[in-house]
Structure formats: structure tokens, C-alpha cells
Amino acid sequence: MAVGVLALQGSFNEHIAALRKLGVKGVEIRKAAQLDTISALIIPGGESTTMAKLAHYHNLFPALRDFVKMGKPVWGTCAGLIFLSDKATGQKEGGQDLIGGLNCTVHRNYFGSQIQSFEAELAVPDLAAKEGGPETYRGVFIRAPAIIDAGPEVEILADIRVPSKKSIAEKEVAELQEEKADSEEKVIVAVKQGNLLATAFHPELTADTRWHSYFLKMVSEEEQALSISEEVLDDEIQPTKIDLPIF
Amino acid sequence: MSRNGVVTVYGNGAITEAKKSTFSVKVGLAQMLRGGVIMDVVNAEQARIAEEAGACAVMALERVPADIRAQGGVARMSDPGLIKEIKQAVTIPVMAKARIGHFVEAQILEAIGIDYIDESEVLTLADEDNHINKHNFRVPFVCGCRNLGEALRRIREGAAMIRTKGEAGTGNVIEAVRHVRSVMGDIRILRNMDDDEVFTFAKKIAAPYDLVMQTKQLGRLPVVQFAAGGVATPADAALMMQLGCDGVFVGSGVFKSGDPARRARAIVQAVTHYSDPEILADVSCGLGEAMVGINLNDKNVESAVGKGPTRSGIGQYSVLTGGFR
Predict the structure, then answer these.
(1) May I ask the CATH architecture of the domain A3-161+187-237?
(2) Hey, where are the domains in chain A?
(3) Which ipTM was obtained for this model?
């Protein structure tokens, strides 16, 4: 199983490092033609406008949409979540292209600017049931989006309590008020719909690889369903690529 | 030391309130910027052009380095009103520069909700001896460096991202190459070093031992490293990426050129496809006039990188170039 990581911009190295820890080789994807060689795709965190622009320059969107339509497993983290959702609010002037597929509405930079970025222990019962380990997961949220509305077919894997309406609202009254007015105290931060997985936080920035193995199980299930003979990983021991430490 | 008898290493006597943002969150944003281009902009209109071109962040300034160089005088933090205006115009992260050692400028920038602060040698120095204690802030910092020792000292002070100093506002990439080569070269020397020799090496480059050891084990700086100072063309940007940087700052290079929108887009593409000469050739075509550029050997050109707290004798030692600078 070859897992591609969209390597236009952002934390693709971190995702490849996390996959390597699980003994899976991640392939950097920069061009449309490369999508044919992989059975699953991870869209990493980064600046979603930048990634959308770069995808647009090289005409990647039609190929990415086809990839999603074919039902191959795709996982988006942070910017990737925005890409996969059908609708996004809080976009730049003129909006941006999306891949779509996930029936939900995402708000970009929901929590505010970098000063409002945070870490939180998330309750993840589904993940813990499948992958074991503790009931909580340390989620790193960096200028993160949040899912403010999800369709009935979307399975919610994790949500987070927004501290209180006031503390966020006072910073960005104008921008967030309408959404805040009718929203609950909880926002959704991880979802699954069919073969699409999306997280608003960054599992690639923590040492806990459960989300990555969760996704890899989705990939192998899909491959078995299609009765593709699962290639045994030719784990050619490559010189370990240098990457950042995990804090 | 505080009243309850607990000794804290960092943040003692901090003026700011309790800190929520951890180092991993600070480094995290820098990691999200990897493989991207950060552009200097002086107004909301330029910020929009940069965002449309695919910049992953913008640096809000009153004057680009080339103008600071030409006009002289004291260069300070930009007007917070201007920074706010730029912040409202775009959805990508907005950075701003504070003078070296001027922690009140940094507090002001934090208060207006800036995403990253550049403690920059491009502005006039505010403190000859000390940098800002960046552990006291919730907002992350990026700092310049010329060599490994300087980079690790800045990281120990709390910088969550490092950029090379280069020679800002010249359009001449030579200094940036020198600094990247120096950092990368020292890391390569360090990697092949016996563990017993690291103590002396740390002393020689005047850097904290634990960070030197971490760098040795990782084989790279422990935070994201960008290139800056003199990048003017897509080829310059790709050169920096191939030398091992995580991304590129472009200062005067974009908006001092003939066709800023086009050049900005070309540099963004060059950073993503840095190892693909065909795409590089493609995006380099017909970009119009590049910024004029300054030759550093010119007698009346004064170097800005010489600036930095050096008086206390904390050296700028580089193993490659030898000796203190």
C-alpha cells in the first residue's frame, strides 16, 4: 500500500515521518499524474490558500476530486479538512477552491489568530476503541478550523468545548458573531464519512501515532474490499530522512 | 526566585500574563509554513497580491528593507494601525518586525494579535547586548542567524523559528548563501563528531550544550529554518531550498520588481517545485525586471548584518569561516 502525502506546502514531512514510524512509506505528491500510483492520500496541514493556489497553478483539482470520488481513502488535517469539506466560511476575499466530498461546513481560523492556538486533551472514544491506548488524545490546534455544521452521514469522532462564547467573541466580534450566536458550546474537530477522514488538529505534530494507524486500517480495509493483493512493504531501510523533533 | 521558594529558569519576572501557548504550538505554526514563501508587504493592497500569489504568510512593514537602506534613519516597529489594516485584508498569518531587544514593541505586537514576531536586524538595534526574552511571550518569534552558534542562542532565548540573516534589501543572495552554508556546514561537522568533543564545540560556538547535542542527534536545527536576505528570483528561492532550508522569506525582491504579482507567483511555485528544473525554467520566463540589486563590494554600501549584540564578546564564531566575526 502506497500512501501519498500532498506535498505542495505545509507539514508533509511530518506526516511522512509519522508514517515511517509505522513502517509505511509515504510518497510526496506534487503532480496530478502521481496520484495514479497511490491507493490513499493524506492532505497535510499548512496554509489552505497557498495549497489551493499551488494546486490550481498545476491543475491538480480535477484529479484530486476524481481521487475522492473513486472512494479511495483520503485524510485531511487542518488545511486538509478545509479542502475536503463541501463548504467553508471565513475564507479570503474571493473564496478559494475546495475538493469537497465531506458533507459539512468548516469555519477557517475558527479559534482566532496564533495567540489563540492551543493544545487540548480530546476525548476520543472511537479511536481508543479501535487503536487502544488512553481515552484522550493530545490535539495540537494551530490557527485551526472547526466544523460548525455536519450532515447526518458524517460520523463525529471528536469534539471540543469552546471555552465560552465571550472569550472568543470579544476578540473577533464582527467575524464570528453570527456563527457563535446559534452554535453550541461544542464544536466538532474530527469526523469520518465513508473513506474520508478529517481532523482540525495536527496528529503529525505529536508522538501519538494512533490517528495514522487508524487511517492505515481504513486503507487496508479498502484494499481488501477491492481484493487488491496487499503488497508486503518492501521496507528497504532508507537512510532516515532528517526531520524536526516532536515537542 | 519567587516567594514560594520555587526556582524558575524562564519567565521569572515576566510582565505578561500566564502563558497558554506551549513551545510545540509555537513551533507548530512554523511547521505549517514549511515549503512556503513569506513576503514583505507595506500596505493592504500588496498583502492581497501576496495572498493571491500563494504566499503562506506576509510580513507587515512600513518600509521594505531596500527603502530602509536607501533612506537611512532609525527604522522602528511599524504603525500598529497599518499592521491591523493588513491583518484585516488577508486570512493568512501576518508577521511583524520588532527591534532587537525592544521587548515593549513585542508586547504591543502581541497585544494587536500578530501571528509571529520577527526580532529583526533589519530595524535599528534597541539593545546592543541583549535580545528579547522570548519565553515571556505567547506569540512565537523568528530570529536571524549567521551561523550555528547564533541560531542555537536564539532558540535558547525562545525563538520558535530561525531564518538566515542574509543581506536584506540588496537583491544579492551571496550573504544568504554564506549563512546557510555556514549553518549547514557546522551541522555536518557536528554530526560526524565524537560525543566527547561536543562540549568543546559547544563552547567554541558559544551555544548551549543541550541544544548542540540535540542538533547533532537530529542532524538539523531543532526548529524550522527559513532563508532570508537577498532572495530576488525563483532560482534564488530554489537554491535556498536545495541548500536545505524549509522555506523562504522574500523582502524587497517582489514589490521592488517590475511585475510583483507574477514574480510572487513564480517564487511560490519555485519553492514547492524546487528540485524540478523544468518547472523552474517554466516559471522563470518573462518575469520582467528584477529588483536592481546592490553589490556588497561597493565601497559606499554598508552591511546591515554586522549589527547585533556582540559587545559582550559573545562571538560570531563559525567553524567553517574560522575565527570570530
Answers:
(1) 3-Layer(aba) Sandwich (3.40)
(2) 3-161+187-237
(3) 0.82
